[in-house]
Design a protein that fits this description.
Elements: H1 3-16, H2 19-26, H3 30-44, E1 49-52, E2 55-58, H4 60-87, E3 92-98, H5 104-117, E4 121-127, H6 130-138, E5 144-148, E6 156-158, E7 161-165, E8 167-171, E9 192-194, H7 201-213, E10 221-223, H8 227-235, E11 240-243, H9 245-248, E12 254-257, E13 265-273, H10 281-295, E14 300-302, H11 312-322
Length: 323
């Protein structure tokens, strides 16, 4: 059985919820389409449609297959496109997501490294939050993403990670700025300025849970998507921030102080789909870690889980030898 062809038939029927109309859309007769759907049901050992007097409806199994089929067919198309591109001597487009707060030097260095190692690769960088990247990866709208952990890696591969301690960001005029190091208890009675939870829900919750476990429950949590908004809120007296030292260095009117025991560590790595991965995804992950570590000395690399070999090595060696 041609599974992909039968899945395409199924998606049209699932959209129309009427076999005759679906057959018209597909440009085929109704009996062969009905037979194809019944064959798919036999192959999967489930009932996909509930037959009703005025048409059909998706069963719970049919609803689940509809969602999976969209992802599977998108991955199949991406795989075919990539293989044809590789056959023709190129790597095509790598759609890569990066956090909006990624420093310009990091992006520049990463693009330079990729251009030097794989001149046939076209990088489409997109500024997205961790949550947006995970959604785009699941929907096959992104090939690789640079995300904040923790994230669910069930359907994803992960490259080597970097980890960076977070500290307290304060106006230079704050009495707390006189200390060389702070504890969470020192922040009691303060509001907190943090990135919006929708951007990286698990990391957001982890930060607040660790802070609460060490005696700091902010009087209020305000949200800032960008470092500029963070600095503006802090300088206006709206509390303290929790950030990397490299971010605080952008604004001379604030200071960064380490937290006693370094209880908060930001962990970042590139992730990509396990099914139908882009051949450049794993190398992008390695280079991203190298560049992040080189441009921010506070970061240190952590090894990622072992990955299966990818087609990148073959294509990359060819590009390098002839670049």
């Amino acid at each position: 059985m041609d599974l992909f062809r039968h899945l395409r038939y199924f998606l049209v029927v699932a959209e129309e919820l009427h076999v005759s109309r679906a057959a018209e859309v597909l440009g085929m007769a109704q009996p062969p389409l009905s037979q194809a759907i019944r064959r798919l049901e036999r192959e999967l050992a489930v009932e996909l449609f509930a037959r009703q007097p005025r048409g059909i409806a998706l069963t719970p199994a049919g609803q689940a297959l509809r969602d999976e089929a969209v992802t599977l067919l998108a991955a199949e198309q991406r795989m075919r496109t990539l293989l044809h591109t590789i056959r023709d001597g190129g790597l095509g487009v790598l759609r890569a997501g990066v956090p909006a707060d990624t420093p310009a030097p990091v992006l520049g260095a990463l693009l330079d490294r990729l251009a030097a190692e794989a001149p046939g690769l076209d990088i489409d960088l997109q500024e997205l939050t961790t949550a947006e990247q995970l959604d785009a990866l699941q929907g096959a709208r992104l090939d690789v993403g640079l995300v904040h952990h923790p994230v669910d890696l069930t359907e994803l591969c992960s490259g080597p990670a970097t980890h960076t301690p977070l500290g307290v960001v304060l106006p230079r005029t704050s009495p707390l700025a006189r200390a060389a190091e702070l504890s969470f208890g020192d922040l009691a009675g303060q509001a907190l300025v943090l990135f919006p939870r929708s951007g990286a829900p698990d990391w957001y919750d982890q930060i607040l849970a660790i802070a609460a476990g060490r005696g700091f429950r902010p009087t209020r949590v305000r949200h800032a998507r960008s470092p500029e908004l963070l600095f503006g809120m802090l300088l206006a007296g709206h509390g303290a921030g929790l950030e990397r030292a490299s971010v605080a260095r952008r604004e001379p009117r604030v200071v960064w102080r380490p937290i006693e025991g370094e209880p908060l560590t930001q962990r970042i790595s590139a992730v990509w789909p396990r099914r139908g991965p882009h051949p450049a995804a794993s190398r992008f992950a390695e280079l991203a870690t190298e560049v992040l570590t080189a441009t921010d000395p506070a970061r240190s690399p952590l090894p990622g889980p072992a990955q299966a070999p990818s087609p990148w090595s073959v294509v990359f060696d060819t590009a390098r030898d002839h670049g």
